[in-house]
Write a structure and sequence with these properties.
With 79 residues, the chain is of the alpha+beta class. It contains 3 helices and 2 strands. β1, α3 and β2 form a beta-alpha-beta unit.
């Protein structure tokens, strides 16, 4: 199992607009999934990362299967 921490990307993406964060993270994940030949990924996201991951779900290529999405302490207004 491999882990990609949003903390690794925070310096580069953290203060950018959400749409830009999602776009860049989508690109990173699609490349990683293709390169590593992963069948599926699990997303465990915290706080602002929960919003980023939730938006990411709508942007990922259909070839990237998300098995599990866990949102912890995300400001998602009960969604």
């Amino acid at each position: 199992m491999s882990t990609l921490s949003n903390e690794l990307l925070y310096e580069k993406l953290g203060l950018n607009p959400l749409t830009e964060q999602v776009s860049q993270l989508t690109t990173v994940l699609e490349v990683l999934v293709d390169f590593n030949k992963w069948d599926e990924i699990n997303l465990v996201c915290y706080s602002q990362g929960a919003l980023t991951c939730r938006s990411l779900l709508g942007q990922l290529d259909k070839s990237v299967k998300v098995n599990t999405f866990v949102s912890l302490a995300g400001p998602q207004v009960g969604m």
